[in-house]
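ERR on first pass: missing label on line 2. Operator R.T. fixed the label and resubmitted. Corrected input:
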Amino acid sequence: MLTRLFSDTSLIPEVQKFASWTDDCEEDISDKDERSEKSLQEVHTEESLSESKEDGDIGGEDDEEEEEEEGTEENEGDRPKKRGPKKRKMTKARMERSKVRRQKANARERNRMHDLNSALDNLRKVVPCYSKTQKLSKIETLRLAKNYIWALSEILRSGKRPDLVAYVQTLCKGLSQPTTNLVAGCLQLNSRNFLTEQGQDAGRYHGPNSSFGMHPYTYQCSRLSGSQCQSSSIASSHPLRSHGYCATYDSIYGNTSPDYNSSEYDAPLSPPLCVNGNFSLKQDSSPDNDKNYHYSMHYSGLPGSRPSGHSLLFGSSGMRSGVHSENLLPYDMHVHHDRAPMYEELNAFFHN
DNA sequence: TAGGCCATCTGGTCCT
DNA sequence: AGGACCAGATGGCCTA
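pass 2 clean. output:
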């Protein structure tokens, strides 16, 4: 449904991705219904067996007891009648039946919670910070999702790119400190930098097209490997590096990785963001790998141009040169030659 | 060990 | 009556 809503909006691929995810979820839920029904059927068959057994053996006994109850009531005719439903004796059979009902209800409740959890898992995959190995908590997932929707709405509304710092700040509103660090880390932003930048506006470029204060960013993005993103830059000193988090920002401006839909990527529904996979420990950091696996995003209106003044190396090259990540913004100047046409299109859009 | 998070059970309420 | 939904209780697991 949302896909249709955004279909004519050539605005932001990520928004469309998000919309299509919600559609996927609708399908997912109907799939789940079938599965839940199946698992419930197992309970049902067990229960119907026990119930039919009960009806056959104990049921008769139960009827007898009901008659017995009525009989006793007739005998107490002169006593004032109690209002409300008659309290029936808890016979063995009734206890059994109530136990079965309870088991059924428990099974339903379990299924319901499982559905809820898998919906949350799906949500985790599309918010800007996803890891199979260390999941965001439920509450943090919901908060982040809310912020994410808000941020996307803002982008849609303004039709312009936000400043990365503002974007991360929006995403992290109301999140716990660990999650904030996580998201910032995912976005390759040093959390301390972005938190202390509040109000300082450090390192921003307020260009004529700027809605939040634009920065002629160039963004380095490494290829995702398995469930983890590739190691580089800030990640080397980031405590979250080992958790395999991947994150999102530049997907708003284009898919920087060719493998988002491949089975290698463990979050196929994730927004096509690879703000650089920081956290892989597997990746061989040979120069060849650098060459092959670095995908970068050019955020400047001038493709290939180097941002003046505050261009900062924040890729593996920065790492090699031993620059401490805390003093850097996570942007690099690499532009993958294959991607250049796409960047031009995107830049054209954002500078219309 | 305390605190956070989670799964599960349970009883209550509302709706069909 | 039965199912969906909800919230409280409880116990397990993990981490700082």
